[in-house]
């Protein structure tokens, strides 16, 4: 049986934990269009699990890139 799209939605609190971000940061990203939530009629934010996993990969890549940048800057004494 195919999983319904609603079954893949997770709460903002769980997403914050998965992405190691605060719920406030996720709200900012939603408001500015960086990482848009699906809102219930009451305004509760939910996220599609596939989108969350994509964002996690993106953030992990960014953090790896920043670590490499810091290493290079340290080696050439910019930082």
What does this structure look like?
- The chain is 57% helix and 11% strand.
- It has three helices and three strands.
- The mean pLDDT is 89.
The portion of residues assigned to helices is 55-70%
The number of helical segments is: 3
Mean pLDDT comes to 89
> What profile does the largest beta sheet have?
3 strands, antiparallel
Brief summary of the model shown:
By secondary structure, the protein is mainly α. The protein has helices at 12-19, 23-32, 49-75, and strands at residues 9-11, 38-39, 45-48.
How do the helices and strands line up, and which of them pair or pack?
Blueprint lengths: L8 E3 H8 L3 H10 L5 E2 L5 E4 H27 L4
Antiparallel strand pairs: 1-3, 2-3
Could you name the key traits of this structure?
single chain, 79 residues, mainly alpha, 3-stranded antiparallel β-sheet, 3 helices, elongated
């Amino acid at each position: 049986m195919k999983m319904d799209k609603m079954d893949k939605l997770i709460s903002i609190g769980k997403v914050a934990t998965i992405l190691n971000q605060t719920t406030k940061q996720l709200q900012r990203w939603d408001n500015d269009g960086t990482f848009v939530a699906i809102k219930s009629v009451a305004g509760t934010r939910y996220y599609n699990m596939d989108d969350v996993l994509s964002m996690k990969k993106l953030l992990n890549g960014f953090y790896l890139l920043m670590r490499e940048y810091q290493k290079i800057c340290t080696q050439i004494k910019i930082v």
